[in-house]
Each structure stands twice: as structure tokens, then as C-alpha cells.
Amino acid sequence: MKRPEVGEVILNEVHDVFLKNLSRAIAKNGRGAYASVHETYGVIAEEMQEFLETLRSNNLHAVDQLERELLDIAVAAFWGVASIGRHRVDTEPLHPNSSEEQGEE
Q1: What pLDDT does 25 receive?
Q2: Considering all CA atoms of the chain, what is the largest pairwise distance in Å, rounded to the nearest integer?
Q3: Long-range contacts, 87-96 (Cβ 8 Å, 24+)
Q4: CA 12 to each of CA 5, 15, 73, 81, 102: distance values in angstroms, whole numbers, following the listed order
Q5: Centroid of chain to Cα 86
Q6: How many CB atoms lie within 10 A of CB 76?
Q7: d(C-alpha 30, C-alpha 74), whole Å
Q8: 59: confidence class by pLDDT, cuts 50, 70, 90
Q9: Burial of 89 (C-beta count, 10 Å sphere; 0-12/13-18/19+)
Q10: Is the confidence at residue 58, as pLDDT, over 90?
Q11: C-alpha to C-alpha distance for 47 and 28, rounded to whole angstroms
Q12: Gap between the Cα atoms of 105 and 93, Å rounded
């Protein structure tokens, strides 16, 4: 079965909704980075749990709620990337096989 394509209009709409959700999260929680990779995991895991609960409800009319939960996951993942990539709040390397650990320069 061929998957339907996601067109530019839909991508732009989803992008706009994502940015609105990101703005709401910043307004609610501030701009503080996640304190660690473990906090990032915890937030994403909590959002995933909420998504799975909605999915398992077998409510065919829960599409709006599923979309909201997926956006929450996306915002949490985005904030995790921003927290890790810009502020290196953990002392452990993100990639255990990094060149630094292998003695390469």
C-alpha cells in the first residue's frame, strides 16, 4: 500500500501549530533548560504515556487529543535537544563512542 504524501500546506500548518505549542510551553514553564538528559527522558516518557493512554482508549474520535499529545512529545523533544545542544548541563558525553573517549583528537 502506498502511503499518502504530506503536502506543503499540511507541513506548514503543522509547523505553525508546533510553534504555537512551543510558545505556550515557554510561557508556562519559562526558558530554563532541562537539568539533565534524564529529565528530558522523564518529560518525553510522561508525554508518551499520555499518548499511549489516548491511543489505547480506542476512541475513534480522539484524533484531536492524539495530535495534541504528539505535539507535546515534539515540544518536549525539541526542548531536550535545545537543552543538551546549547547548554551541556550533563557531565557525561551524549555519545559513549565519541572520538574523545577513543583517544582521538
Answers
A1: 97
A2: 55
A3: 87/33, 89/33, 89/34, 89/35, 89/36, 90/36, 90/37, 92/37, 94/37
A4: 14, 5, 18, 21, 42
A5: 16
A6: 21
A7: 17
A8: confident
A9: middle
A10: no
A11: 16
A12: 15
Residue bearing cell 512551543: 22
Query: Cα separation of 80 and 53, whole Å?
Result: 23
Distant-in-sequence, close-in-space partners of 65: CB < 8 Å, separation ≥ 6: 54, 59
> What is the b/e burial string over 32-41, where b = at least 16 CB atoms within 10 angstroms of the residue's CB?
ebbeeeeebe
In the block, which residue shows the cell 523533544?
77
Residue 56: pLDDT above 60? yes
> Are the CB atoms for 80 and 34 separated by under 8 Å?
yes
The C-alpha cell of 24 is what? 505556550
- Give the span between the Cα atoms of 43 and 46, in whole angstroms: 5
Torsion over CA: 97, 40, 34, 85 (sign) = positive
